[in-house]
Amino acid sequence: MKKIIGYCLFFIIILPILIVNLVLIVKTKMYPNKIADFLGYRPFIVLSGSMETKINIGDLIIVKEIDAKNIKKGDIIAFKKDKIVISHRVVEIHSGDGGFNFTTKGDNNDVIDNFLVNSYEIQGVFVNKIPGLGNVLLFLGKPMGLLLVILIIIIISMGFYFINFKSSENFKK
Question: Are residues 122 and 149 in the same domain?
Answer without folding.
Answer: no
